[in-house]
Amino acid sequence: MLKTLLGSVREYKRDSLLAPFFVMCEGIAEVIIPLLMARLIDYGIDRGDMNQIWKYGLLLLAVAIFSMVCGSLAAICAARASAGFAHNLRRDMYHRVQDFSFANIDKFSTASLVTRMTTDVTRVQNAYQMIIRMAVRSPILLVFGLGMAFYINARLAPVFLIVIPFLIIGLYFILTRAFPLFTRVFQTYDDLNAVVQENVRGVRVVKSYVREDYENRKFNKVSDLVYTLFLKAERLISLNGPLMQLCMYSCMLLFSWFGARMIVSGSLTTGELTSMLSYVMQILMNLMMVSMILVMLVMSKASGERIAEVLNEESTLHNPAQPVSEVPDGSIDFEHVDFSYSGDPNRLSLHGVDLHIRSGETIGILGGTGSAKSTLVSLIPRLYDATAGTVKVGGRDVRDYDLTALRDAVSVVLQKNVLFSGTIKENLRWGDADASDEELERVCRLAQADEFIRAFPDGYDTYIEQGGANVSGGQKQRLCIARALLKKPKILILDDSTSAVDTATDAKIRRAFRDEIPDTTKLIVAQRISSIQDADRILVLDDGGVAAIGTHEELLASSPIYQEIYEFQTRGGDGDADHQ
Ligand SMILES: Nc1ncnc2c1ncn2[C@@H]1O[C@H](COP(=O)(O)OP(=O)(O)OP(=O)(O)O)[C@@H](O)[C@H]1O
Ligand SMILES: [Mg+2]
User: Fold this and answer.
1) Is the C-beta atom of 373 inside 6 A of ligand 1?
2) Residue 574, class by beta-carbon neighbours within 10 Å (0-12 exposed, 13-18 middle, 19+ buried)?
3) Cα(220)–Cα(518) distance, integer angstroms
4) With 0-12 CB in 10 A as exposed, 13-18 as middle and 19+ as buried, what is 469?
5) Closest residue to atom 28 of ligand 1, CA basis
């Protein structure tokens, strides 16, 4: 994990090394200061020697300034290194996620990916900053401080050896109890994030089902848990302060007690005692710092692992070694295709599909919910790879093609289609970044979108809010169809893409397709028979398998499932079927 994460430090390596270096210089200066103070008092003030006072005074000033400059430089370097590291981590994760296949994304879930890219990275950033500043400084100061104390007076210094074990035991007691609480707090944060994300994304549904109270309660529950756990953990951590003070004052008392006696007997000077007392502070503070760093390390470990998991995730789709970059035509063949989302051959979503579609054919796809219509079409542009068997486009296995070339040739309007915030033009140009305005208008006329776009005050420059919130369901669908058409695909797949469009407009779209893009293979998944009955052939899916395929008339004569759907939709059903 560490290797993966540190791989993202890159250009910030210099800062990451300079920060501890400056911190070390600062630390050394801090250790020297009490020693100089002792000299100043003993050689200068006690003896009333002005020359010595000047000498040590100026030296002290120089060391203090040096320490200050090193401190600031260390802070700047550490901030730059940690912010840069976090920046790289986020960018690397983002790039990784762009390469993810649908299967990879299914594995992580969107909410978790967002948490990993935000909260977890921030946590690692903070830990990194603390570590490069303190992990070097504190142990060094601790050892130096102790060394200096022994150097000044080896008979007095062992007092530390009595007090320090007490402090270590106390800190151990506090931290081992606080640590599991912090771990739980962070786990609960994930739940909190999930609740907030789900609610905010689905806020319209929440409101329309008047579920605000329920959602509030759900949120309060998680939020209260975070609060309680945090409070408990912080309460424990706050014991650190009194513990430190207790140890510090005991140390000082002991030093004063023994020190005073030694001064009287002449084996210690006043200056030495003063500097010993400064070392007390330094040594105990650094000891506490070392323990806090340990805590921080362990706490950020979970976040680090979550980040590394994303960075190490291999995309399940690969471009072949020698990719074919041209799709010759729009024919589609399924040969004994099985597919399972989990990869488990015992839980197939699609089984034994054999299907041959000629280039330019219009195929209607019909079937109950969950009959694997979306699954079937998603194998064509290689959104997923078949678990067994072969899917061919233009007579070649889809796995032989360059992914970009394949997806340019196969345009899909997904069932869960999405518009992005930006103008209509910008959204459409996802299909083809270089398309001219005339081209945009042409595809919009084809998709029956031109008319309503012109009715907007800003026309094609109308701003689409996030998720397409300011256009109607049917308008959104038509914009998505236009976007797909702009690619001039050889195969066009509409997955239930006109479900929110009225039947007359639906019919106009189909007629435009027939007249304007006759050579494009069209796969139209629909719930309404009226949307597909004039297709060249209709494919009826049932429970992941092909139940029947043929023209409307053939199916009416031979397929019981088709007959049933037809009967239901024309007679009593939704009255939606219109015959043109
Ligand atoms: N991302 C996924 N991960 C796991 N299972 C899935 C996933 N998507 C769909 N499934 C399962 O695969 C089966 C077929 O689903 P699919 O979405 O293809 O049905 P559909 O015919 O398109 O249904 P609908 O008419 O409701 O769109 C279902 O049992 C569904 O639970
Ligand atoms: Mg579907």
Assistant:
1) yes
2) exposed
3) 57
4) exposed
5) 370
Q: Which of 494, 426, 39 is nearest to 269 (CA)?
A: 39
Q: Which helix (H) or strand (E) holds 281?
A: helix 270-312
For ligand 1, atom 11: residue with the closest CA: 349
- Measured by CA distance, the residue closest to atom 25 of ligand 1 is 369
Decide whether any atom of ligand 1 lies within 6 Å of the 378 Cβ.
no
Do the Cβ atoms of 552 and 366 come closer than 8 Å? Answer: no
Domains in the chain (CATH in brackets) are: 2-312 (1.20.1560.10), 332-415+491-570 (3.40.50.300)
Ligand nearest, relative to CA of residue 494: 2
Which DSSP category does 530 fall into? G
Q: Are 428 and 441 in contact (CB under 8 A)?
A: no
User: Does the beta carbon of 372 lie inside 6 Å of ligand 1?
Assistant: yes
- pLDDT tens sequence for the chain (580 residues): 888 999 999 999 999 999 999 998 998 898 888 889 888 988 988 888 899 999 999 999 999 999 999 999 999 999 999 999 999 999 999 999 998 888 888 888 777 788 889 988 998 999 999 888 888 888 888 888 888 888 888 888 888 888 889 888 998 888 888 878 877 887 787 788 888 888 887 787 888 888 888 989 999 999 999 999 989 988 988 888 888 889 888 988 998 899 999 999 988 888 888 888 888 888 888 888 887 887 777 778 878 988 999 999 988 888 888 999 999 999 999 999 999 998 888 999 999 999 999 999 999 999 988 999 999 999 999 999 999 999 999 999 999 999 999 999 999 998 888 888 899 999 999 888 899 999 999 999 999 999 999 999 999 999 998 878 889 999 999 999 999 999 899 999 999 998 888 989 999 999 999 998 999 999 999 988 988 989 999 999 999 999 999 999 999 999 999 999 898 888 754 544 444 3
